[in-house]
Amino acid sequence: MNNKEWLRQLSNLTGLPYYEEHRIFGDKSGALIGIRDGYIVAIGLGKADGGHSGVKMLLRYAKTQDPKLIKQALDPAKGKFKQVLTDATTANLVRTYSLGKPDAASVAEPLPGLLAAMKTCAAPIGGKCEECGRDEPQMVLLNDVPTRYCPSCQVQLTQKLDAAAIEYENLETNLPLGLLYGAGAALLASIAWGGVAYLLRRIFLWGAILVGLFVSKAVVTGIGKVTWTARGLIGVLTAASVAFGDAIFYALTVMSQDHVPFMAALKAVLANFWKIETDSDGGVLSIVFALIGAVWVMYSTRKPAFKARFTTLEAPSTVLSSAGAK
Ligand SMILES: [Zn+2]
């Protein structure tokens, strides 16, 4: 069964309207979005952590001080959903699958139990703006999250975020501090890289990504914000860190085989670094991975998003007469 048919079937079973064009969980088949007992419920297909295919569900309630309590109440009712993550307004549930999508009926089945559990601990959103509590009949998507947000609160949020974006642009940058932090992090990562490689007798290639993340965190903390200079610095330092980590690994190996002091071994390794690196198994690969790590981190260090994107819910693809709005 294709994703759209599956969602249509799930829409029939749950009475939640199906919106083909609102891809709030990432999958192009769209999502079910509706209100049940005053709570906002959305279900759809998307990628779970680690790239697994998953069925995702959002349950949204009025702001609470104690999201843990909601997690405790929902956990026993989650059925085959794997995990429940809760914050002040939203519970996120994921059910992963590997071969085919689970039976739509088995996805719909825990919903009444989940709603019953919510009633014991979370206040419904009902027909009110989540921000100011005024009556608001329309649901909107705020950065792909279904919510009730009245027009005046929408304007206020947009203005607030615009101001925050301008403030961020005007932040002072401190390049020397970024360089200092970044170089320190890169050196630490080299030592860890070389040490781990020596202990495991192999180079842990995906570690390049970890090195990149660590260096990037340090550089951005030092500079104060993400700039193109910061990205470039992160890339160079990540590649250098992995290369120097390899050098430490070779030096440790030489030290233990030839019984020479570490510094002498390191000196000899550095003098012939490129030859050793290209001769050794995995040497060139680790440079390649360092570059992949560097590029990936440069790409993924985005500026914080200061955008509130409001989307109105269009007419659903399926409207159910009997099980419609409750
Ligand atoms: Zn409002």
What is this structure, in a nutshell?
It is built from 11 helices and 9 strands.
Summary keywords:
16% strand, elongated, 3-stranded antiparallel β-sheet, alpha+beta, 326 residues, 11 helices
Notes on the protein architecture:
The strands form 2 sheets. The chain has a 6-stranded antiparallel sheet. The protein has a 3-stranded antiparallel sheet with strand order 8-7-9, with no helix packed on it. The model is unreliable at 321-326 (pLDDT under 50). With 326 residues, it is α+β, with helices and mostly antiparallel strands. 50% of the residues lie in helices and 16% in strands. It has helices at 3-14, 67-74, 104-108, 111-119, 151-169, 175-200, 207-223, 228-258, 262-271, 273-279, 283-300; strands spanning 18-19, 26-36, 39-47, 53-60, 83-86, 90-97, 140-142, 145-147, 310-312. Helix 7 (207-223) crosses helix 11, helix 8 (228-258) crosses helix 9 (262-271) and helix 8 (228-258) runs antiparallel to helix 11. The chain has 11 helices and 9 strands. The structure holds zinc ion. Zinc ion (ZN) binds at residues 129, 131-132, 134, 150, 152-153.
C-alpha end-to-end distance: 29 Å
What Rg do the Cα atoms give?
26 Å
Question: H/E order of the elements?
Answer: HEEEEHEEHHEEHHHHHHHE
Number of strands: 9
Number of helices: 11
List the helices and strands and how they pair.
Blueprint: H1 3-14, E1 18-19, E2 26-36, E3 39-47, E4 53-60, H2 67-74, E5 83-86, E6 90-97, H3 104-108, H4 111-119, E7 140-142, E8 145-147, H5 151-169, H6 175-200, H7 207-223, H8 228-258, H9 262-271, H10 273-279, H11 283-300, E9 310-312
Antiparallel strand pairs: 1-2, 2-3, 3-4, 4-6, 5-6, 7-8, 7-9
Helix pairs in contact: 6-7, 6-8, 7-8, 7-11, 8-9, 8-11
This protein binds zinc ion.
Zinc ion (ZN) binds at residues 129, 131-132, 134, 150, 152-153.
